Amino acid sequence: MPTIRPATSNDRAAVASLMDAYSSETAAAQIAAPNEQVILVENAATGPIGLVSFSIAAQGSSGVNVGEVTALFVAPAHRRGKIAMLLLAEAERTSRDQGIAELRARVDNANAPAAAFFRAMGYTPIESGFRKQLPPKRSAKSRRAEG
């Protein structure tokens, strides 16, 4: 069973490897950026197999806090195994817990698989990619009342 956890500065080589087009310096900057969070999925045998990076504190024009998925990578050997779904769900949960009301993702129009993925995850197309309204964070009291 894969483990999901926040990336640390010790993970920069693994992040660079997953992001294969970036250097370890770029990966380190991604992890260290003040408004950015990086979450890894790893398995015990091979280490990190996927990551999502997202901003957590941008103010949208509508006055609500908007987050943005800035990177979503899964190692080729682990694609089509729902790893990206786990990562995006964790980014959504973490964003919602931090007061983000909407999460966006920039997707190149030529990237049909990515567009199909975000649509399948409930995102709607916008001019520069996709967006999804996040439900408000539920309080512990409301969770207990639901059962």
Summary keywords:
147 residues; alpha+beta; Aminopeptidase; seven-stranded mixed beta sheet; 5 helices; 32% helix
Architecture overview:
- The protein is of the alpha+beta class.
- The chain has a single domain (3-146), classed as Gcn5-related N-acetyltransferase (GNAT) (Aminopeptidase).
- Helices cover 32% and strands 33% of the residues.
- It is built from 5 helices and 7 strands.
- It has a 7-stranded mixed beta sheet, with helices on both faces.
- Helix 3 links the parallel strand 4 and strand 5.
- Helix 1 crosses helix 2.
- The longest helix is centred in the middle third of the chain and has 15 residues, at 83-97.
- The protein is globular and about 45 Å long.
- The mean pLDDT is 81.
Helices and strands in order:
Blueprint: E1 3-6, H1 12-18, H2 24-32, E2 36-43, E3 47-59, E4 65-74, H3 83-97, E5 102-106, H4 112-120, E6 124-126, E7 129-133, H5 140-146
Parallel strand pairs: 4-5
Antiparallel strand pairs: 1-2, 2-3, 3-4, 5-7, 6-7
Helix pairs in contact: 1-2
Low-confidence stretches: none
Q: What is the fold named in CATH at topology level?
A: Aminopeptidase
> What pattern of helices and strands is seen along the backbone?
EHHEEEHEHEEH
| CATH hierarchy: architecture | 3-Layer(aba) Sandwich
Q: Approximately how much helix is present in the residues?
A: 25-40%
End-to-end C-alpha gap: 27 Å
Beta-strand share of residues: 25-35%
Please tell me how large the radius of gyration is. 16 Å
CATH class (first level) name: Alpha Beta
Q: Would you identify the CATH H-level superfamily? A: Gcn5-related N-acetyltransferase (GNAT)
How many domains?
Answer: 1
Q: Which sheet architecture does the biggest sheet show?
A: 7 strands, mixed
Give the overall shape, derived from the CA principal axes: globular
Task: List the total number of helices.
Answer: 5
Total number of strands:
7
Helical/strand content category: alpha+beta
